């Protein structure tokens, strides 16, 4: 849908302000659909990824991993598709240096060096890509994800954590620069966006490695608890190996609440469409296990409003959220709360 043909939806003369917090492949899908339905979108993207092209770049130069940020920039861009195809192009050359790298990742890494940090680099690139909305790295510096397991052991690094085969008790983030003297912090623009939002959306994405790394930045997590915006959690459709085996939807929310020390999630979006047992390619999507089971009473006990619907999209033998359907529900909630922000006590 082009910028000129978007659905025009406004709250008291303005577009609804939606902040989406997360990372991974699900984030740009939701962000793109919100953009096409005329939301004023701010995406706050995790900077603790250590895999793929992003991880390789991070190993060579001390920059925030750019992959998730690149995909969200493309999702919010109003440039013609040809330019975005070039930005998103990933080399398939056998050359050891370029193989597997996306051009956009290299541009983000270069701008980060030029601007002295990822935040200013992304704002400059947002102008170049004609981004409608805002893309904010959760931190201006690279972060390391750490996990404590139920057996008392700890590990650092997303790949190591999910590959450990253990049950995660909690996660936390630290500065990747071992010489850093201050704990990780989000910049003021991130905090302002959360405080001024109509709704704040968590996910969809990996609970421990895409969503919680953002909330574990202390001032960002505090802002999510303090904002008068509606807090919406998009429950994953499938459980995930190394993270959420045997989790119900209520278990996801319990983990979020435990990490922030209070019941802060207001609304959950739950998919109820069945996943065909023979559809998912478990070799291609080897991290996905089984559909998340529903515990509606558990969610209600946690003070959550539950919106259950067919949010399922099947494509390429993978299981995904239907971005358009999810965005519609998010905006319906934004209109409900946009004219009268709730009070938190």
What is the compact description of this entry?
This protein has 345 residues and is of the alpha/beta class. It is 37% helix and 20% strand. It has a 7-stranded parallel β-sheet, with helices on both faces. A 3-stranded antiparallel β-sheet has the order 5-4-6. A two-stranded antiparallel ribbon has the order 9-11.
Keywords:
20% strand, disordered N terminus, Putative gluconeogenesis factor, three-stranded antiparallel beta sheet, 14 strands, CofD, globular, CofD-like_dom_sf
Task: Report on this structure.
With 345 residues, the chain is α/β, with parallel strands linked by helices. The protein has a single domain, classed as CofD-like domains (Rossmann fold), CATH 3.40.50.10680. It is built from 13 helices and 14 strands. The strands form 4 sheets. The protein has a 7-stranded parallel β-sheet with strand order 3-2-1-7-8-10-12, with helices on both faces. The longest helix is centred in the last third of the chain and has 16 residues. The protein is globular, with a radius of gyration of 19 Å. It starts with 16 loop residues before the first strand and ends in a 7-residue tail after the last helix. The relative contact order is 0.14.
Global morphology: globular
* Distance separating the two termini: 41 Å
Order of helices and strands: EHEHHHHHEEEHEHEHHEEHEEHEEEH
Query: How many domains make up the coordinates?
Result: 1
CATH classification class: Alpha Beta
Spatial arrangement of strands, main beta sheet:
3-2-1-7-8-10-12
Per DSSP, the total helix count is: 13
Total strands:
14
And the CATH topology? Rossmann fold
Rg measurement, Å: 19 Å
The CATH superfamily appears as CofD-like domains
CATH architectural category: 3-Layer(aba) Sandwich
DSSP helix fraction: 25-40%
- Please state the average pLDDT score: 89
The low-confidence parts are 1-6, 51-62
Strand pairing plus helix content: what structural class? alpha/beta
Main sheet, how many strands, which sense, barrel? 7 strands, parallel
Instruction: Estimate the strand proportion.
Output: 15-25%
